[in-house]
User: Fold WRN helicase interacting protein 1 from Poecilia formosa.
Amino acid sequence: MADETFSNSVQCPVCFKDFTPGTINGHLDTCLLSSAADSPSTAVETGPPVKKVRVSEPVNDSVSSSSSAMPGTQSSSSVFSLFQANKGKLDVQPDRSSVFSGKRSPVSAFSKGTKRVLTEAVSVPTGIETPSVSNSEAEKNINNHLPARTLLSSNKPLAEALRPNTLEDYFGQNKVVGQQTLIRSLLESQEIPSLILWGPPGCGKTTLAHIIASMSKKKGSARFVTLSATSASTNDVREVIKQAQNELRLCKRKTILFIDEIHRFNKSQQDTFLPHVECGTVTLIGATTENPSFQVNAALLSRCRVLVLEKLSVEAMGSILNRAVAALGIQVQGQHPTNSSYREQTDSSEPAIYIEQKALDTIAYLCDGDARTGLNSLQLAVQAQMKSPRLNQSTQHGFPQEIVVTEEHIKEGLQRSHILYDKAGEEHYNCISALHKSMRGSHENASLYWLGRMLEGGEDPLYVARRLVRFASEDVGLADPSALTQAVSAFQACHFIGMPECEVILAQCAVYLARAPKSIEIYKAYGNVKACLRNHKGPLPPVPLHLRNAPTRLMKQLGYAKGYKYNPECSGPVEQEYLPEELRGADFFTWTPSDR
Assistant:
């Protein structure tokens, strides 16, 4: 009777439990909804539950007993010979017929579980769940047990492999997410608002988004989706929003949408987010290196909070590098290991890796606040030394030679200082503004510095030369009329020679303009003229007749040029009006908009 009931039962393909044919349909509706409510990202899947084995009979005799109970069936040896031919397939893929018919094969009962000796029947309760491990904890455990060679030789860049998952390991942005800050309190309470993360490359924008994702996965409070504006389209965004609406309606779970390089989306693409951010369907987190005032839609910007992430300081870079060195098992020369020596922690066949403190300090200073550049430079230097030919030689005690990363190795990998400069972005306008204001303040050293920042960052020298020509007239003006000649000559010389030879010419012109006396009377006077024209009420006054040109007889008959006094023919001063009658006596060098 038990065998008959067992053979007539149907197995649920979701939870792998047995049900009668009359109740399986109702159970499937309930089981599918309950499985959709569970967050798939809160735990690492460990495989389907182990199938139950009938307790009434031994495993080895189950096939033979069932075949002997029915006359005309094959013997157990023939049945086992059939399974032996596909034994390799059974270990990889379970018998599909058992899912639909409810019959189970004792051979595949343990194909998804751990290896066991099939000498006796084992009963596995159906209510037991396998323990789950979160993604962050699993990654942390893996990184803690992987040797340095494995992390350094992996395909992932070191900056990606060691990306932190908690705010405790997030360095350099204490003003934004430090203790007692509003944003940190919101993140810890899972009340995450829509954010725009603005900062230079390598300051931690993407890392902060990953930390938010890790916190959301651990608490199961939200679903986190990542898109990159460099490759995603509007259809991809609409698909994510549609899934977010379903998640919110069916599972009551929010969706956090992270858009990397959000400034790559144009205005119409950014408008796609507006109604869904407004009603709370998605929580938008955008990362950008460009000024959001110019690159992000104003309507979208008003619905998000802008977090300005600063360039990482040298101290923050030192903390990041120390964390990386500890994770890789690299010992800093001159420092005593906190636990046990690196030789005891790793296989004795691998060489011990050491690094000089000066080498870490060099990375912290030369990476220019870019953590990605600093970590990848460390990885490059260590990898180069690990593949050195001299490592094939052993010491007299039989151990491989030690690897020592020095300051020279770091400088060789970096070649030169990594200068942050974008010729079409925010840093471009910041540097040219600093150069202009330094020359206006007659600070020749600061003028040379900002000029060097621009030229060494790859700025077009002709652009700088054009700005110097403008400065010569705007800020020096009549105080030194030869300054304009100097600036124009510098522009022509840069056009003839080009970089890098023209850098000295630009430096000479910048210092000359910084040392020159300053006068803005021309700049202010012409500004008054523009204000006069803009503020004039009614039609503009006509040109006086005596100032008009009269090339034809008709114009002369109409009074054009009548009464005009030709100054070179006069021996003395000439009394003659040159302004319109409404503006007679106006002095634009002392004029103010309220005068007229």
Q: What stands out?
A: Residues 173-308 form a domain with the Rossmann fold fold (CATH 3.40.50.300). The mean pLDDT is 77. Residues 234-251 form the longest helix (18 residues). Residues 349 and 398 are 9 Å apart (CA to CA).
